[in-house]
Design a protein that fits this description.
Elements lengths: L1 E7 L4 H13 L4 E5 L3 H7 L2 E2 L7 E5 L8 E4 L3 E6 L2 E7 L6 H15 L5 E6 L15 H11 L2 E3 L8 E3 L2 E3 L2 E6 H4 L2 E6 L11 E5 L9 E2 L2 E2 L2 H15 L5 H18 L12 H19 L1
Parallel strand pairs: 1-2, 7-8
Antiparallel strand pairs: 1-14, 2-4, 3-4, 5-6, 6-7, 8-12, 9-12, 10-11, 13-14, 15-16
Length: 292
């Protein structure tokens, strides 16, 4: 399972720092950024769109899930992460209808190349039912393109993605293909300080597995151990009938794999709360002994 944060940082370095801190604290795997800070994106080496005016970026946080391929378009980025492909885009509210339509249909055409795709970004569309004062002409373009491509909106329409003074709207959108939609869950707006007018959107992709060659903690899994693990899983799953049995079999195999990945020449981790309390009181006890 992979956790994604979707966020418009308004090009603010402070908002970027807040987004990173939140991602680390909540154990997110990726941040999908709109209006990222150009200089910061270049310094950090984030995956970003091809235009000189950087608007979109994908930030790896956990680095648990391998990136298979990357395509940099003028106004959006396309990143394939194993079973799912992510498209991160942004279009300015000042763009004319012709440019907006070109952007939307280019994003949708790119999405049509992948069986499981998620589209996320700030598409700056105003709809009264989404909290805007008026419904603009961009709505028809976006809705027709989404319906034509078989995309589903993941937003629940309960909490705004943008709050500025007394106004609020849902201009940050998340769409998914039918296949991806079946595996995406927990879409919600986080109640966190962002240092931006935009709120952070969270969603998870539940079917995303970790890499075949991976580490358990700091322990590198050998190829031999992986072969044994695969063979064990294959043999035991032949007799599994119920989902609970499958989960139990996989968990037992992972536990056995962890036991084989012994780190040599490493001290045991024996720290616990009482040891910490003793360490803190040591200077005071030492002083008492000297006085005695």
């Amino acid at each position: 399972m992979a956790r994604f944060h979707q966020f418009n940082a308004n090009r603010s370095r402070f908002a970027h720092d807040a987004a990173w801190e939140l991602a680390m604290r909540s154990q997110a795997d990726f941040i999908l950024l709109s209006e990222s800070n150009k200089k910061l994106a270049e310094e950090k080496g984030w995956i970003r769109n091809a235009d000189v005016d950087i608007n979109d970026a994908l930030v790896e946080v956990s680095r648990v899930f391998p990136i298979v391929s990357v395509a940099l378009r003028r106004d959006f980025v396309v990143v394939e992460i194993r079973e799912v492909t992510l498209t991160v885009g942004y279009v300015s509210q000042n763009s004319g209808l012709e440019k907006y339509e070109g952007f939307i249909y280019e994003v949708v055409a790119e999405a049509g190349r992948w069986p499981s795709v998620i589209i996320a970004g700030d598409f700056n569309v105003k709809i009264e039912s989404w909290g805007a004062v008026v419904t603009d002409r961009r709505v028809q373009i976006l809705v027709e393109a989404a319906i034509g491509a078989g995309l589903y909106s993941l937003g629940d329409g309960l909490c705004p993605t943008l709050e500025r003074g007394e106004s609020a709207s849902f201009i940050d959108v998340t769409f998914a293909s039918k296949r991806a939609c079946q595996r995406v869950g927990d879409w919600c707006i986080l109640d966190e300080e962002t240092l931006s007018y935009h709120n952070v959107v969270l969603f998870v992709y539940k079917a995303l597995g970790s890499v075949a060659s991976f580490t358990l903690g700091l322990r590198k899994v050998s190829e031999r151990a992986m072969r044994v693990f695969r063979r064990t899983i294959t043999d035991r799953l032949r007799h599994a009938l119920m989902p609970d049995e499958v989960i139990s079999i996989v968990q037992e195999a992972l536990d056995e794999l962890r036991m084989k990945c012994v780190v040599r020449n490493r001290s045991a981790y024996w720290w616990y709360e009482e040891v910490g309390e003793l360490e803190e009181s040591a200077p005071e006890q030492e002083g008492s002994c000297r006085e005695y």
